[in-house]
Amino acid sequence: MATDYDAPRKTEDDSESIEALKERVPDKLSGAVDVEDADNPSGFELPGADLSDLELDVVVLPPQEDEFTCANCFLVKHRSQIDHDTPHGAVCLECAA
Ligand SMILES: [Zn+2]
């Protein structure tokens, strides 16, 4: 009995919603996509070569035993330049000043 009521309702809802969607979707979407496709290529060019150049510049030698890498400025300095230690590493006098 109850299922007899459900079946005709579902088919009615489906046909109505599909027709409503078809009426709203038509030309607006295709037009918007065309405009964005024309704008993007000229505005956004990814600088992939620049990134590899940066990596070559940032080759860092490991600190010697009497040196440390400052946890704040990441410069390698002599241990006499340590102001204090932090959980992330030592901080140099200049950064602590
Ligand atoms: Zn520092």
Automatic annotation (TrEMBL):
Domain of life: Bacteria
InterPro entries, sorted: DUF4193
UniProt-annotated stretches for the region Disordered: 1-23
Pfam families xrefs: DUF4193
Biased composition (Basic and acidic residues): 1-12
Protein name: DUF4193 domain-containing protein
